[in-house]
Design goal:
The complex is a heterodimer of chains A (396) and B (258). Chain A is an alpha/beta fold and 396 residues long. Chain A is 43% helix and 19% strand. Chain A is globular, with a radius of gyration of 19 Å. The relative contact order of chain A is 0.16. The chains are: A alpha/beta (396), B alpha/beta (258). Chains A and B meet through β2, α1, α8 and β11 of A and α3 and α5 of B.
């Protein structure tokens, strides 16, 4: 997967303007050339280990395990990576690829700001120019990350069109890329968009499950029964799942953002409420109305506040290989607080969606079952928003 | 020969675009009547989409206004029916919208209705050559031309794209999105010559053209000129009073290229 046309089953493809076609073809050729190149992989591994702090720990959450009274719970600590989330894995890979392609400028969309911060970081490291598009609403709810990006030398452009959130930032990036292609690489942050992005991003994020598989075999001598990850566009989820897809006994569970509930319009749970469509370069599932107008989705989590999902997830959903559940704002905020108190780990509000489902699922399982939850990022960025959610106003 | 091809037989073609439903469909219909009266060869009807990734701010905002005003695909079809049956519009009409608008309606159902109501072609800027079969194969069954686009970055793709084109070829004048430009830097004569070397399908240039001078210049290389944002701007400025102003503008552009 995917096939030669960039399809995962019926999903994926390249639904983009003609202006961009040669750019994605060039990217695909470069990626195919470098992905198996020993020198490229050596450089990337060095960056992962020496710069980003990989491998990330697989931590046995003993107190949480005891408290929930069921499955043995391990946390894959992507929050411990440099820049504080899994986003750095993909960005280091793409920035290195862009550099090899002779590009000198990176553009990126960002929701919560984690991908923007990671891209700004890689741009600083590689001496590249960086422009990040971020919805104006997200700029406000993630002000700290806006400052971090600027500190790292990036230009941050607030996007005011549409709902002024992640989907509009992606649209604006696509517009910018059609304007300036020669020196610019679009460093897409999730396993979405036109082929080859879903494949490239997946391959760079697959390090998560490559490591966790080796780590769990070492610690437990067997594969996990469950792997849980939060899922917006789906990059940390596909990275967490990828090396287990062939191991049918491992249950893969993506946790979508239900916002105020999947029976309301204020939701971002694509697989639970969306239907098949074509948008942002791919065929997949999207939250949309009966005429195909993209829905103004909502979640407390800026990083999951997206009306679509990557095509490989759509395929895993179709085939039943992975299951996708919906977690509300309330459940996620409770989990955010729970993991902080129980394990002394403040997860990103995105990752808290996976923790929330674990809190429901683990107590129903036998004590000999093993569960891995990917903590995709750390929650410092969310503290002000969660305080507001709880009616407390703290000055950032 | 398709109606679209015929529209290129009487000198250079002028192809105005309008966002349907901004400010309302009645105004859109009257604008189209004026466009025909003042010599437009073909009209591009934009079915509004919530997230038009190939559009600049002018058409994007018009699309959002139209959607907020309650415009839907079905209502646009209703307007087309009226244009053909009551308002005497006989020139070719082409839909310009995004893949998801057609896909979610059902490609078969969309094309069947388009054909029945008198639509001659469909332009989907987010469906490149690689993905066009899914749409084009259905369009062909209903005698609707699926319009291909060629960009300044197409290079060696030109013969492939142009080779299977029908109706007309939409040559994108510049990098970037739709919108008025004071300066078009692409080598348009070379781009048009490269297209004309591999096909007899007429080609029209769009993106960034707004003045009669630009139109006259572009029409030296191509068979037609497409103008979108400049017209959508006039509609935004005059609202329900737009038809007369749009007509006046179309007249000035038509006389510049013929």
């Amino acid at each position: 997967m995917p096939d030669s046309k960039g399809r995962f089953g019926i999903h994926g493809g390249q639904y983009i303007p003609e202006t961009l076609m040669n750019a994605v073809i060039e990217l695909e050729e470069a990626y195919n050339h470098y992905k198996d190149d020993p020198e490229f992989n050596k450089e990337l591994t060095e960056l992962f280990n020496e710069y980003a702090g990989r491998p990330s720990n697989l931590y046995f959450a003993e107190k949480m395990t005891k408290d929930l009274g069921g499955a043995r719970i391990y946390l894959k600590r992507e929050d411990l990576n440099h820049t504080g989330s899994h986003k750095i894995n993909n960005v280091l890979g793409q920035a290195l690829l862009a550099k090899k392609m002779g590009k000198t400028r990176l553009i990126a969309e960002t929701g919560a700001g984690q991908h923007g911060v990671a891209t700004a970081t890689a741009a600083a490291l590689f001496g590249m120019e960086c422009v990040v598009f971020m919805g104006k609403v997200d700029c406000e709810r993630q002000a700290l990350n806006v400052y971090r990006m600027k500190l790292l030398g990036a230009e941050v452009i607030p996007v005011t069109s549409g709902t002024a959130t992640l989907k509009d930032a992606v649209s604006e990036c696509m517009r910018e890329w059609t304007t300036r292609i020669d020196d610019t690489h679009y460093c897409l942050g999730s396993v979405m968009g036109p082929h080859p992005f879903p494949t490239i991003v997946r391959d760079f994020q697959a390090v998560i499950s490559r490591e966790s598989k080796a780590q769990i075999l070492e610690k437990e001598g067997r594969l996990p029964d469950y792997v849980l990850a939060c899922c917006g566009g789906g990059s940390n989820a596909i990275g967490s799942f990828y090396n287990y897809i062939g191991d049918k006994e491992v249950n893969l569970i993506g946790c979508e953002a239900a916002g105020r509930g999947i029976d309301t319009f204020e939701t971002a749970a694509t697989l639970n409420t969306g239907k098949l469509g074509i948008f942002h370069g791919m065929k997949s599932y999207f939250c949309q109305d009966e005429y195909g107008q993209i829905a103004p989705v909502y979640s407390i989590s800026a990083g999951l506040d997206y009306p679509g999902i990557g095509p490989e997830h759509a395929y895993l959903h179709d085939t039943g290989r992975a299951q996708y559940v919906a977690i509300t704002d309330d459940e996620a905020v409770n989990a955010f607080e729970y993991l902080s108190r129980t394990e002394g780990i403040i997860p990103a509000i995105e990752s808290a969606h996976a923790v929330a489902y674990a809190m429901k699922l683990a107590p129903t399982l036998d004590k000999d079952k093993i569960m891995i939850i990917t903590i995709s990022g750390r929650g410092d960025k969310d503290c002000a928003a969660i305080a507001r959610y709880r009616g407390e106003n703290i000055n950032e | 020969m398709s109606n679209i091809a015929k529209a290129f037989e009487n000198g250079k073609a002028f192809i105005p675009f309008i966002t349907c439903g901004d400010p309302d469909l009645e105004t859109t219909a009257q604008c189209i009547v004026e466009m025909q009266k003042e010599g437009a060869s073909i009209v591009e009807l934009g079915i509004p989409f919530s997230d038009p990734t190939a559009e600049g701010p002018v058409i994007m905002e018009a699309s959002l206004r139209a959607l907020e005003g309650g415009c839907t695909t079905d209502k646009v079809f209703g307007m087309v029916k009226r244009l053909r049956t009551e308002l005497g519009v006989t020139i070719p009409l082409v839909f310009m919208t995004y893949a998801n608008v057609v896909f979610s309606y059902g490609i078969e159902r969309f094309c069947q209705k388009a054909s029945e109501y008198g639509i001659d072609g469909i332009i989907l800027p987010d469906v490149p050559y690689e993905e066009k079969d899914e749409f084009d194969s259905v369009c062909r069954n209903y005698g609707v031309d699926f319009i291909s686009l060629i960009a300044p970055t197409s290079h060696e793709r030109i013969s492939m794209v142009a080779g299977s084109a029908s109706g007309f070829i939409y040559i994108v004048s510049s990098l970037g999105v739709t919108g008025v430009r004071s300066n078009i830097t692409t080598d348009i004569p070379s781009l048009c010559a490269a297209v004309k070397a591999v096909t007899d399908v007429p080609c029209a240039i769009g993106f960034g053209i707004s003045t009669p001078e630009q139109a006259a210049e572009m029409s030296k290389s191509a068979d037609g000129v497409i103008v979108g944002s400049a017209i959508v701007k006039i509609v935004a400025q005059y609202g329900k009073d737009a038809p007369a102003h749009v007509g006046e503008y179309v007249r000035s552009m038509v006389s510049a290229i013929r």
